[in-house]
Design a protein that fits this description.
Elements (H helix, E strand, L loop, with lengths): L1 H5 L2 H32 L7 H9 L3 H10 L7 H26 L1
Helix pairs in contact: 2-4, 2-5, 3-4, 4-5
Length: about 100
């Protein structure tokens, strides 16, 4: 932990962002998997708006994995579009954070 404190503020910010990024994607992945399980078992579902927002707010990677692994929402155009948009948002955010760190 002491090593983390000696890193520059840019590195600390990048590390914090990456932790947030991983957490958001894990949660998004779990949302898709749980919704698929609920669909198969006839339970109350997670709202589509929740899945879409989680996808667009840095969760593109988790959504992509959730859609492929759970085979969930793969035929719906709005989810395909949200997945692409979420991946672009995630890529832009990671690129911006790397740029801030390097320059």
């Amino acid at each position: 932990m002491d090593l983390f404190l000696h890193l520059g503020p840019g590195v600390q910010m990048f590390f914090a962002f990456m932790v947030l990024f991983v957490l958001v994607n894990v949660v998004t992945f779990l949302l898709y998997v749980v919704d698929k399980w609920k669909a198969v078992n006839g339970k109350w579902r997670i709202k589509e708006a929740t899945l879409l927002w989680a996808t667009l707010v840095l969760g593109g990677v988790g959504a992509s994995l959730g859609m492929v692994i759970a085979r969930h929402k793969t035929n719906k155009l709005k989810f395909k579009a949200a997945m692409v948009a979420g991946l672009l948002v995630a890529a832009a955010a990671v690129t911006l954070m790397a740029y801030i760190l390097l320059f």
